[in-house]
Amino acid sequence: MTISTTSSSTPTTLGADDDMADRTNSDETRTESDSLGSMEIPADAYWGIHTARALENFPITKRPISVYPDLVVAIASVKQAAARANAEIGVLDPAKANLIDRACQIIIDGDFHEEFVVGVIQGGAGTSTNMNANEVITNIALELAGHAKGEYQFLHPLDDTNRSQSTNDVYPTSIKIALAFSLQFLLTELGLLRDSCSAKSVEFSHVLKVGRTQLQDAVPMTLGQEFHGFATTLNEDYDRLHETLWLLAEVNLGATAIGTGITADPRYAEAVVRHLNQITGLALTTAPDLIESTSDAGGFMSFSGTLKRSAIKLSKICNDLRLLSSGPQAGLGEINLPPRQAGSSIMPGKVNPVIPEVVNQVAFSVVGADMTVTMAAEAGQLQLNAFEPVIAHSLLQSIVWMAQACKTLRVNCIDGITANEERLEVMVGASVGVITALTPFIGYQSAAALAKTALLTGRNVADLVVEANLMTRDEVTKQLSPARLSGIEAITSAIPIIDLPIPGADSDPSR
């Protein structure tokens, strides 16, 4: 692959596909060395020996960190800010800093992500990820300067690209930035899903149905109110997730190894965060206690807990959708979900609620990931938590899956839901739950007796009330209107209560 070596601040680069096509001779290698010895590295690889060792050591998930582009961009942003800060305070040659800056910008713009090859799960507290970034950035910068990959005498991955830094402050800071970036995607999809449910609440505002508590018939409501409830709970989760941004704003950049700032100029922490905010558009701040911040993972736990809350509530909505659409003949059958695929290899015509089902499973995964984050945070020891790689993977995967789940639920399910209005009308008419609306007028005892009669005979409640001379037809019709039954129109007065005689009871009021 060839990179422009002109002095333009926006060098011409090739995309990932072009880069892979350029790798025509995988047998060619270059020799790189570290404190453990030497290794042969593919000549066309932008990563180096530290990355190569990680590939040997951690063949666990077969998922490289590049599956999370926001994490790659976040790391490049931190390295870019470090280069600018180091140049500003005079601890890095401006020409070197400019090369590192330009290389980072190329990565931020979307190129070379395929070079971030270390696994998402790794030992070493994220050192392999930091090394991978140092090597890729350095080799891109070397080519920008007209040098070959691996010619580290001109620009070094650790002495220059990693100047004033440690994995222990670069990696957690990068995770927080990546989470902030990814969260925006989730918030966008969650907001669209909320709006979709809100639109359905308007569409179904006139559709009366029977509400249920403990899976038993309760009192009437509208289908629109049910979907409005969905929209409200999604909006609450939108707000709670948005609030978690403050958990991600405090970073320990400048702490270096354990929080003492060793090897970093005292001016570095302020400068690097200032540059990082300019690069990312975020409002990051330096933690007041860098030692505490370097060892503590409490912010990740709180963020994960909020994400779990949202997943659980989204799953509950999907449970409701599966119940409401159950049948279509022998279940509730109140709503119709869009048919997305044949539901059975043996039962012709069967269609399953596959979209709510897949969202349920995403929620289950998020719950499991939250437990992983909790255990990883607990396992931290002394001045560092070594388990941030699994924290990063768990949270980033949960965010991505949640966002995609919200999207498929909206596009492939909510937007296409229809109501079985005729069935709902029949169910409301036959429901004894409607008599609850009449208790202010006929009393609980009379209402209970009529409800029992309606259940035994299957007769219409309104007819029984009128026949018992407890209310006129007009009065019953008024009180059982959809607006009254759903609570949209409040009851402002009541007629005098007339107790319905209970069969077998002594009618003598003196006894």
Write the layout of secondary structure elements.
Elements lengths: L15 H7 L6 E6 L2 E6 L6 H9 L11 H21 L4 H15 L18 H18 L12 H5 L5 H37 L4 E6 L2 E7 H21 L1 H5 E2 L16 H13 L4 E2 L3 H6 L2 H27 L10 E2 L17 H25 L9 H25 L5 E2 L1 H10 L8 H4 L1 H14 L3 H7 L5 H7 L2 H4 L26
Parallel strand pairs: 5-6
Antiparallel strand pairs: 1-2, 3-4, 7-8
Helix pairs in contact: 3-4, 3-5, 3-7, 3-10, 4-5, 5-7, 7-8, 7-14, 8-12, 12-13, 12-14, 13-14
Organism: Plantibacter flavus
GO molecular function: aspartate ammonia-lyase activity
InterPro entries: Aspartate_Ammonia-Lyase, Fumarase/histidase_N, Fumarase_C_C, Fumarate_lyase_CS, Fumarate_lyase_fam, Fumarate_lyase_N, L-Aspartase-like
Question: Describe it for me?
Answer:
A hairpin with a 2-residue loop joins strand 3 (208-213) and strand 4 (216-222). The model is unreliable at 4-25 (pLDDT under 50). This protein has 20 helices and 8 strands. By secondary structure, the protein is mostly helical. The strands form 4 sheets. It has a two-stranded antiparallel ribbon with strand order 1-2. Helix 3 (69-89) crosses helix 7 (167-203), helix 8 packs antiparallel against helix 12 and helix 12 (298-324) runs antiparallel to helix 13 (354-378).
